[in-house]
Amino acid sequence: MRELYEKIREEGEILSDHVLKVDRFLNHQVDPVLMMQIGEKFADIFRDERITKVLTLESSGISPALMTAYVLNVPLLFARKRKSLTLQHSLYTAKVYSFTKQEETEISVSQSFLDQNDRVLIIDDFLANGQAALGLVQVVQQAGAEVVGIGIVIEKAFQDGGELLRSSGFRVVSLARIASLEGGQLQFLEEVMNK
Ligand code: 5GP
Q1: In this structure, what CATH number is given to the domain that contains residue 23?
Q2: Which atom, in ligand 1's list, is nearest to the CA of 61?
Q3: Which residue of 39, 65, 86, 101 could cross-link 123, Cys pair, CB 3.0 to 4.6 Å?
Q4: Which residue's alpha carbon is nearest to atom 22 within ligand 1?
Q5: DSSP E strand stretches across the chain
Q6: Is the CB of 93 under 6 A from ligand 1?
Q7: pLDDT band at 89, cuts 50/70/90?
Q8: How do residues 98-136 score in pLDDT, each as one tens digit?
Q9: CB distance 153 to ligand 1 below 6 Å
């Protein structure tokens, strides 16, 4: 997706060989025009899947997931990372090890909002080792619902998550795939393959 590639090139900050910071348009300040383009793209790709719900993980997945849900005209559901006073009973839960925070958290979704009739599109901002996506898959499976696809804004293709999810049979679509961040140089997978 050209607009996303340009944004990553212009505004992304390479923090290390493994971490890209995109606080200028996705993870802190949010570019709503780009988010809508992302939403339209995911909606186009998954339009025939009879999706009933878009599921993400708070907080950075919410903006692309909301736009996707808006275009598909279905609800957005986000898993919570912290227990809240109003969300304590009848939960689907999964443990997720966070790549960026290096700690395990329990994510949860109320059983009121997901059941065996749901066809779910999972959306997240980044794919690294696949733990966040796998946690969301577990939540969907606990509900007896079906994961019809996983949409990722930025996949770091040099980490294991993409292979893990695809080899488990999930349809994973990433709008930007990064081959490498080594030495402060960002290379998209597409560019490396076309060389
Ligand atoms: P995974 O669970 O696939 O290992 O990591 C995905 C999650 O970690 C995403 O939800 C995202 O919030 C965070 N994450 C992983 N790698 C990066 C990165 O390079 N930059 C940013 N900003 N977040 C990341």
Answers
A1: 3.40.50.2020
A2: 10
A3: 65
A4: 21
A5: 13-14, 20-21, 53-57, 76-79, 91-98, 103-110, 119-127, 146-156, 172-180, 187-188
A6: no
A7: confident
A8: 888 889 999 999 999 999 999 999 999 999 999 999 999
A9: no
Range(s) of the domain holding residue 49: 2-193
- Domains held by the chain: number: 1
**Ligand 1 atom closest to residue 161's alpha carbon, by position in its atom list:** 3
**According to the model, what pLDDT value does residue 85 have?**
64
Give me the residue label for tokens 């997901």.
Answer: 114
124 lines ligand 1 (CB under 6 A): yes
Ligand 1 and 105: CB distance under 6 A: no
Taking the CA of residue 57 as reference, the ligand 1 atom at the shortest distance is: 10
Name every residue whose Cβ is closer than 8 Å to that of residue 167 and which is 6 or more positions away in sequence: none
Q: Which of 34-48, 83-97, 114-128, 166-180 has the lowest mean pLDDT?
A: 83-97
For the CA of 20, the closest atom of ligand 1 is 19
Would the CB of 164 count as within 6 Å of ligand 1?
Answer: no
Which residue's C-alpha comes closest to atom 8 of ligand 1? 99
pLDDT tens by residue, 38-86: 999 999 999 999 999 999 999 999 999 999 999 999 999 999 998 766 6
